[in-house]
Amino acid sequence: LSMAVAAEFRDYLGDFIEHYAQLGPSSPEQLAQAAGPPGEDGAGPGPRRALKSEFLVRENRKYYLDLKENQRGRFLRIRQTVNRGPGGPGGFPGGPPGLQSGQTIALPAQGLIEFRDALAKLIDDYGGEEDELGGPGGGGPGGGGLYGELPEGTSITVDSKRFFFDVGCNKYGVFLRVSEVKPSYRNAITVPYKAWAKFGGAFCRYAEEMRDIQERQRDKLYDRRAGPPGPGSGSGAGDDSDGDDVDDD
């Protein structure tokens, strides 16, 4: 999510907050209607009508915002999809060619103000005056402001954690945001471009040192399992003389 899109999200959230405030409490009849009829498989409720919907398209990404209601209450569902283009990777079964299955989050309507305020603070802290660089990660078909183009984001999964790498730019220059995401929390750091080489060198050095440490530990473990040499295992062990006895005569 680029800073410019985040700023638009902030404005959209204001509209959703205002609309939510005007709805008033739900009646039992509305809750029953929100639950919807059973789905085709009879396993659960069918589709629910959105109370308010908006969508946003930026380059190859689409963002859908839907204020919905179920028996637990009202919530804002935000979904992002990425279009890789014809024949692009990441297509999902039954979907149009090149359309990648996106990510979805649901926010309780009672927390929209706090979420909007947190997003606004993030924009103030890291967004900067993106117009000076020609826009967010922006300034042209390839994005990146004055830099013309920025690398695509990526992610890796390790055990139950997922790490996201996203390149952006603001008035201070290009940066890499590394986010660590688990089901229970999310944490992130921002690394300026001028420090990338140092970070990469430090990672490579530590990776090499850890390989050496692991090899030494494996060697020690092997030696302990092999045990000390047993009696009689040495060369020439058990010999009482250096040669055959020879008679003096």
Automatic annotation (TrEMBL):
Domain of life: Eukaryota
GO molecular function: DNA-binding transcription factor activity, RNA polymerase II-specific; purine-rich negative regulatory element binding; RNA polymerase II transcription regulatory region sequence-specific DNA binding
Ranges annotated as biased composition (Basic and acidic residues): 217-226
A Pfam family annotated for this UniProt entry: PurA
Cell compartments where the protein resides: Nucleus
InterPro entries linked to this entry: PUR-bd_fam
Chief localisation class: nucleus
Keyword list, A-Z: Acetylation, Activator, DNA-binding, Nucleus, Repressor, Transcription, Transcription regulation
GO cellular component: nucleus
Region called Disordered, residue ranges: 27-50, 217-249
Ranges of Acidic residues composition bias in the record: 239-249
Homology family: Belongs to the PUR DNA-binding protein family.
Protein name: PURB protein
